[in-house]
Specification:
The structure is a homotetramer of 298-residue chains. By secondary structure, chain A is of the alpha/beta class. Chain A is built from 8 helices and 13 strands. In chain A, helix 1 runs antiparallel to helix 2, helix 3 packs parallel to helix 8 and helix 7 packs across helix 8.
Amino acid sequence: MSDPTKHILLMDGPDRKGLIYHVTGVLYRHNLNIIHNAEYVSPAGHFFMRTEFEGLFDSDALLSELHSAMPDPSHDTENIVDVPDDMTDRHNITFRLNPKRRKKIVVMVTKEHHCLGELLIRYAFDELDADILAVVSNYNLLQPLVSKFGIPFHHVSHEGLSREEHEAAILRTLSIYEPEYLVLAKYMRVLTPAFVNHFPNRIINIHHSFLPAFVGANPYRQAYERGVKIIGATAHFVNNDLDEGPIIAQSVQEVDHRHTATDMATKGKDVEKIVLSQALKLVFSDRVFISGNRAIVL
Amino acid sequence: MSDPTKHILLMDGPDRKGLIYHVTGVLYRHNLNIIHNAEYVSPAGHFFMRTEFEGLFDSDALLSELHSAMPDPSHDTENIVDVPDDMTDRHNITFRLNPKRRKKIVVMVTKEHHCLGELLIRYAFDELDADILAVVSNYNLLQPLVSKFGIPFHHVSHEGLSREEHEAAILRTLSIYEPEYLVLAKYMRVLTPAFVNHFPNRIINIHHSFLPAFVGANPYRQAYERGVKIIGATAHFVNNDLDEGPIIAQSVQEVDHRHTATDMATKGKDVEKIVLSQALKLVFSDRVFISGNRAIVL
Amino acid sequence: MSDPTKHILLMDGPDRKGLIYHVTGVLYRHNLNIIHNAEYVSPAGHFFMRTEFEGLFDSDALLSELHSAMPDPSHDTENIVDVPDDMTDRHNITFRLNPKRRKKIVVMVTKEHHCLGELLIRYAFDELDADILAVVSNYNLLQPLVSKFGIPFHHVSHEGLSREEHEAAILRTLSIYEPEYLVLAKYMRVLTPAFVNHFPNRIINIHHSFLPAFVGANPYRQAYERGVKIIGATAHFVNNDLDEGPIIAQSVQEVDHRHTATDMATKGKDVEKIVLSQALKLVFSDRVFISGNRAIVL
Amino acid sequence: MSDPTKHILLMDGPDRKGLIYHVTGVLYRHNLNIIHNAEYVSPAGHFFMRTEFEGLFDSDALLSELHSAMPDPSHDTENIVDVPDDMTDRHNITFRLNPKRRKKIVVMVTKEHHCLGELLIRYAFDELDADILAVVSNYNLLQPLVSKFGIPFHHVSHEGLSREEHEAAILRTLSIYEPEYLVLAKYMRVLTPAFVNHFPNRIINIHHSFLPAFVGANPYRQAYERGVKIIGATAHFVNNDLDEGPIIAQSVQEVDHRHTATDMATKGKDVEKIVLSQALKLVFSDRVFISGNRAIVL
């Protein structure tokens, strides 16, 4: 029997009539009390639900009963257009009961310290909902900072290596830790699709953003030259393009013509580190689902 | 039979186990498809739910079955501490099915036009989800604006009248229209509790707000003298204090020392009118519930 | 002699040593009191100054003396790299004394009313610092709104016309009014460089903006599909690309996955109209200078 | 002779005609080039100016000439109503030339680490424009964090001491370091006016803020119960009330009914630490002047 604290059930599958009814019915018959429930149905007909509940139960029995209770889709298939790959029962519905609360992560950085410092301080005071197993960098500049917090630091230089060789070296280092998530805390090298495919929807990146967006080198210089009045940052999952993928969180700050490109970068860093931290908090508390190229925060 | 477009069910009552299950079960047995469902349980144990669904049904039968399906609270009453007054069944649970979508409102103003103008333009283009039956003012300054839009304008002067006499005159005017909501779009007189009690949770006010808050006359002057860097506005229900009551929406804008008190007021008005409009949109689409002194937006 | 109220002096030219000193010296010798002074020197070495002052003076004498007082650039030319075209004295320095306070503008629209309605209400209450001489549209949809405010409305349809023919027709209409500024209040057709060149830095546009930016048709749909958490709007001068040119003002609002593309567009419109109005206020009070592709707000 | 890098001149005194002219004249005659100049005249007639310039000069000669060049106020005294106490010449005008760029500060904390951690990381990477001489706390909870960064930590417990005795103990510790500024990075004890008077306009505090403001214990609980939609933070100088004094910087974040009081506090901390850091950056770069109860940021 689980202990009687708060539990979390995540559910994900093609939408059909009665899903909420059948799931809540199983919880009701087990005498479990729903504290918070949030659902979302995508326009493409995919159903997402996150349920917080309390009470005593047997996990295997509950999961088994949940699967059995699912309504037969045969009479109600016209909506199903968005079938993900990771389905786990005959109805293509995935249940996850009490996903592990402390995620295991590796942080990847290059030279900038602002996001890393933020994560280390939060980790030191147990505010991250995750364990930082290690920090990996293509430079050794941030080793002194990491060592203050007693966390392994791996300098995996890219010098003299092809992109594939460098990524292979990183993967060897990561294989020591088997992290559930990679956090790119200003890791400034483009990752190959082959690398990204090792961590589907498990790589989180922070990216400066502007209105309008500036592509190419030195975006803060471009933003300055265009005279933007707002700068921002975007935390997102990485799929096959470093700066693309479902957006988890965004925020902005105002600037004006008195800000130099350097001032904008300084203010931008403040936004970046807070947005990254807030995005990680959402992901690590299992509140984020992915629907196509969108992140749904329940 | 209702037509097969989107329907809304609102539910409100003391929390107990199985509420979601029993309600969604009734909808399932009627072959109705839930499009969107949002619940909230207050810390005091009150349950709120807003359900959007589609399908054909008989309203009386559905409501009757919903009431019958409610679980018996006798075994599960320990949580019930927050019982509102408007309960409608033996379980103290209120259901509202398809609340009328176009609300009937009267707008009250004094001399400032910015919020009124905003509402009139939105109304003229059918963006308000409400019918403005009339505008009532203690001055006649805004009559020309209102007349452009073909809406009755009532000048109910307070001159020479006691507060009670003036409110009695306003109530006589309002009795012509029987509005569901009163919108105080910069109505600058304090309302008595007796007046407010005629419209429980049905008066919406817009109020300038600051960090920190300034009490008393000429708040923009006070904000200027304190050198605030942010000004804002708050849309809220009115209970017994003009500037108190559950907060529906808030927003802010940045200012700096170059802004005079007048500049701050000008920027503040921009915030006020947008926040008021966005709050009305939420209320008139039946997304706002009141829990104690909080407004829950589902 | 001018009357003793507040006056404005605008100055613009290649930077050199002593500019502030010499200008303020002329004002001092005329016994004029500076209330507010703001300068900006661009990285390219261009100097901008906006001075508010009070006192009695003869305009011609003051301007003549200002020109005479300018330091000889011959010893100090190494910085001059950014020479604009509209210089008016031997030192390439432009002075503008008391630019006319009420600008004459024509507003151009297509079908959307939100920005136009905002401008009309502000104009009706004399808050625009400008006279709306006329509204020009390629549709007649907004004629009823404009007529409420007693302003000429010109329907210049583009049907059956080439882009050049249509713009020629618009120019004929504009020639009646000789506006100082064109305000594109959701005018949804691309303007040719030839048209834009008739109004250098005198066309102001409002553009939706996102983090990241979305190019092409239906940006709100694209923003929705990417799951953005922030939407915004940008008011800018138009040069040769409808959506480019110096940025005057920007603002944002938060959204989340529960917002449909339509909801995002609705919230976006609220931002658009306020940003456009605030940008116009800055331009019409002669606070905006253009430096390269940047708008400097003094 | 000073080296030919950027210099800063701060000026502060009763407004009169010709101040900008006379100061810029001295710089011009010394062949110094003004890079950036910002002035402000308070409604009460006090003049503030911050000038950045470059070139070679003798500091004593320059300051002496600046004082000599000031216009005689005898003919122009009607505006002088706001005379501060720290005047340094016969005209009551203060000049400060090249104020020391790295300030010496002591940080005071109680139990919360978020602001302190932020300052330590910035300090470790030389981003603070100040040296943290020591950290003083009435608890020893944050000693391990501080020691990671090699900074002295003083635990000055208040237990068993009167407020005056405790403050005397703190002052003894501070006397070792003679800090120019005290930074209250979530120091949660009220300071007496006697203590504050030791550091006039040299104590900077960070304070949570709300719309509306909540007075008394547990403001996040109050904010939650009122259902606020925005939370914020205010960095300000401390005068005789811990939560009052000129406001340097403010910022906000959005929340909604799904945020518990704890969630609000968590988000509030993110705002607090960024606002405090940004305020310190402004103060330590000598951009902040105090006018009455307002902070002017030039």
